[in-house]
Fold this sequence. Notes:
Blueprint: H1 7-25, H2 27-44, H3 47-53, H4 61-74, H5 83-96, H6 104-124, H7 138-160, H8 176-182, H9 185-201, H10 207-226, H11 231-247, H12 253-277, H13 286-305, H14 314-321, H15 334-341, H16 355-387, H17 390-409, H18 414-430
Amino acid sequence: MNVQGSKFLSIVALLARFFRSSFEKSDARVRLLRAAEFLMNSFSSSFVRKIANAMPVFYPAKLWKIFDAANAKFRGSLDIFNPALIFPLVYFAFVSISSYTVSLLGLVSILLGMSFFVLGVLISGRIGFGKIYLEEHSERIAIFLVIIASLSLAYDLFYAGSIPLLNPAARRHLSVTFTMLSSLLVPGGILVISLLGKKLEQGQISLREARVYALLAMVVTTGLISLLGYRTQTIVALLGCTAAMYYRRIIGVAEILVAFFSVIFAVSSVGYYRALSEGSSIGFMDVIGKRIGLTLNIYDYLINRFPLGVNRGSVLLATFSSFFSFIPGPRLGPRTIVAQIFGVRDVSMTSTLLGTVVVDFGIPGIIFFTLLLGFAVGLAYSAVKQTGSVLGIAIFSLLIAYTLVGIETGLVDFNVVMFFIISFLVLYVSAR
């Protein structure tokens, strides 16, 4: 595969250069950076930071010593977040704990997707990186994302009139636009943690402080985004923040295992609470297995009915046309289109990472999509390994978190697709 000679990547490079040139010459860039710098300077001398500096008093040193001793045994082992390793493992675990048994065709298609994902990761490893574009503005970008997301979240909850986490019916009243903007809190929180890791590396803060601040950032980010009642964003926040702490050497494998079981517990808790709110009597331990079973059942039906696809791209187009009215195409979201195939109205259905791809292009679509996805995630991974940059770690942590969660939910939301596109453009511009 000739990566450099690809016509598609040439177009991507042209677009990346255009956006880069436009941003660097624009008044918006100057105002954005000045506003972010003002906020940074204000925070540095604020009472809030003085309170944060007192947090290490509550540092559980004995507990961290246990973690550090356990991490010493894993030192030098395989990189736990290597996409070529963790993606197939999580997908296998996803299928194995399901309450539904996948058909032979369904299983073969999943194995095919995993194989081409790994191939995409391996291909991306041949690309070199220098300095990551916008790296010097990481702090300003983090503050900008957090401020915009926090204001949007506050307005969204006010608009809904209730907290969707406590009242699931309130999700119907959320503003689509402000919900999308609220999701910026996740990359913002991840970037904050990556910046803390840089300060640790430079000796500006101690490991003790870095851990307290990073955990505080993760708890605040996850807690705030979970108010909207969407499990995807909650899990991505946990996974993404954990990955950023791992690559910044704030935590090790032992803490990740704890975080993994925390994610399982969080998913079960939110699902169990929602089930009780809707009058269901499902058991706490059955939430994940039955949820995955339903998703795999939907996917299995789609792959057996449409092995060569049927919609020819309209489901993919719906990711954009359902958000922007000026784009011609379906006004329903991709998951809602899948639900209508089953005759279900006014709800959405998850069909795994590959379900919507199958509806559009079938098995050939799986091959192309997973290859492209593996290349994009692998590109971010290569940037981390070669540069160790703040922005590179934040981008990879965000993409790998969405990819792993997307195994169940799919990658069809407009904001998620834009995260991938913008990240890819930044990485492509940064590549040598």
